[in-house]
C-alpha cells in the first residue's frame, strides 16, 4: 500500500503581510518523484524552504512520515535549494569532508555519494573549476550524505547544457529505487514531464492542481490554464 512521506496542510507564508504561499496542501507519495511546477515567483522555493526548516510557516502544518514535522526530521531530509553550497577552493572530497564533520558521519559515506553522482575521478581539481553540471551533482552528493528518505531539489537543471540535463535526469530517476522520495521544483514543463510521477502546479502562491501525470496529457495547456485561473482569482 502506498503511503505519504510528506504532506502540508493549509501551509501559508507571509512576508510583511503579503502572502507568498497561500493555504498550500501537498501530498507526496513515498518512493516517487513529485514535480512542483510554477512560474518564477510562484512560491515554489518558499514552500520548499519551509519544508527544509529554512523558513518558519506563518500558519499551517507540515506532516512528515505521519507526524508533525520537527527539526529532528532534517536528519532524514536532504536538500539542494538554489545554488550548491560549495567551497570553490576545495576539491569534491574536501567539500564533502566539511559536511561529514558537521553531520558526524563516517568518511566512507563520501566515496559512496561520489560514486552515486559519478564524480569519483575529479581528484585534486577544485570545485571552482567544475562545470555547472558537475557542481550540481556535487551539491546533490552533499544532500545525499545523511542517507535521506526525502530529497528536495529546487530548479536543479538551471544553467545546464542538454548533456548535463540528460545526465541529471537519469540520476534523479534512479533515486526512488534506492528508497529516496524526490521533490523537484521547476518551471520547465518538458523536464518535469520526463522525470516526475506526480505534479503540483503553484501560481500566485496557490496550489491550483495536483495529480498523477497521465501519459499523453497536454501539460502545457494544463499549466497555462492553472496560471490563468490563479490570475483571475487574484484580480
UniProtKB/TrEMBL annotation:
Domain of life: Bacteria
InterPro entries: AAA+_ATPase, ABC_Gallidermin_ATP-bd, ABC_transporter-like_ATP-bd, P-loop_NTPase
Residue ranges of domain ABC transporter in the record: 6-229
Cited SUPFAM superfamilies: P-loop containing nucleoside triphosphate hydrolases (SSF52540)
Gene3D superfamilies the record matches: P-loop containing nucleotide triphosphate hydrolases (3.40.50.300)
Keywords for this protein: ATP-binding, Hydrolase, Nucleotide-binding, Transport
The family this protein is said to belong to: Belongs to the ABC transporter superfamily.
Annotated protein name in UniProt: Putative ABC transporter ATP-binding protein YxlF
Organism: Clostridium liquoris
Organism phylogeny: Bacteria, Bacillati, Bacillota, Clostridia, Eubacteriales
